């Protein structure tokens, strides 16, 4: 199961599966040789048993969520900042306080957080959830599964990819809908992922 995928600015995406992670090379469109590896061997201070969701901000930090906690990961230093984990409720105004299924950062200054059959739109500059949320996934994300997403990541090609179980969907950001022909098996579109 693919959880907490994040796209780094080095041409790599990192995807998690339980206590392991995969490094995915965007240009060659496949998992790098030698993966999976244990989270404990490559992510100092990160949750070692699993990460539920992850987002990368433009401030050089990535944020990873598990249960009711989150950590702030310093990308340049390649480790979790001191003082983490912290409760989600203490650092994310208005956000779900536990069990975030996945999250994606859109190119509109917003991040979207999903839990169960609902989602929230988070204003990055304002550092808070926009008014009127949570809302149902159904009707707002045409063609997307309406509940229980495992992972989501935005590529630099105008597409977002969402994962659930052994399948994935490609979401066209400009068209605001899932592309035709999805869901598809992860094994057919993501070489080397579980």
Automatic annotation (TrEMBL):
PANTHER family: EG:8D8.2 PROTEIN-RELATED, HEMOPEXIN DOMAIN-CONTAINING PROTEIN
Protein name: Hemopexin
Repeat in keyword set: yes
Taxonomic superkingdom: Bacteria
Subcellular location: Secreted
Protein's UniProt keywords contain Signal: yes
Species, as recorded: Streptomyces nigrescens
Keywords of this entry: Glycoprotein, Repeat, Secreted, Signal
